[in-house]
Amino acid sequence: MELRHRDVGPGRPQSPLEPEGLHIALMGIDGAGKSTIAVELADSLRAAGHKVEIVNFKRAMAGAEPATAGVLFHVAFAALRAQYAEAVPADPLSDLATLLTGDDDSAKFSEIEDGLRAVDVSGNGARPLLSSAVLEIVGGFWVHSYVESRLRDGVVVVNDSFGYKHALKNVLLAQRLSGPGSSVHAEAQRVLEAARSLFHALFRPTYGYWVDTDPRLALRWRATTGDVTTPFESYGLAGEHGEASFLAMQDHCRQAFGEAAREWQWQSIALADVPREENIGRAVRLIEQDALRHLERARAAR
Prior knowledge:
302 residues; alpha/beta; Rossmann fold; six-stranded mixed beta sheet; two-stranded antiparallel ribbon; 58% helix; 11% strand
């Protein structure tokens, strides 16, 4: 099978950015290869003499100026705690409460996040996950503020985890927990529609790419790299377990990403069942061609 590259709409989205900057965003399921593509793309563009920075929520937290970084840390903690606000630990002796009441200290965020992820939960509530989804949207405003600051400095920004993904996953979990026909399920759908509209209208990149990957391929690639699947990459918090749980969530995400990509007129790069290095290399070359053409046009315009 060959890697397929096609436009999912009649044109690419364009944003009114400073001419020196370029914002490239990647969207796709967990394990799709987005981070690997971002790293190799950044290395290649740097070798061509361009300033490049990989940006996502966590990187923005670490790199932003103090006011923006402070807001991002508070939002990140709030979103994380909301996810676990009604979580039921499988082990009643798990000290989940202590983890949820930790200080909003940037140095402790990864420690608290790792601690929460290590807690085996047997159930969760739907509304806290919806709250977390809304907070991911709030975080999107501040991440984009950081992106804009880097663009003004003439940096090529490569966003390897477009924020819509995180709001989407929380919504899907909330819907799974609440069930079709419930009021919470309907509320979750409205949150998802708002997220899709806002991320396109306010945070859209110069070039957006949907890295379309079959969940089974993603699971296989993850197994070869030793990556561990977290509770928020499957329907584990809804009481489902195993590979089927991961595949079900990722397939739902894939469908939603496809809908968004068509609506936003993002380009689709479909990864095929060929060696992962071959997939990544082709994807990088295709994105790099767009980036270099854009940068050359911007240089000529100046």
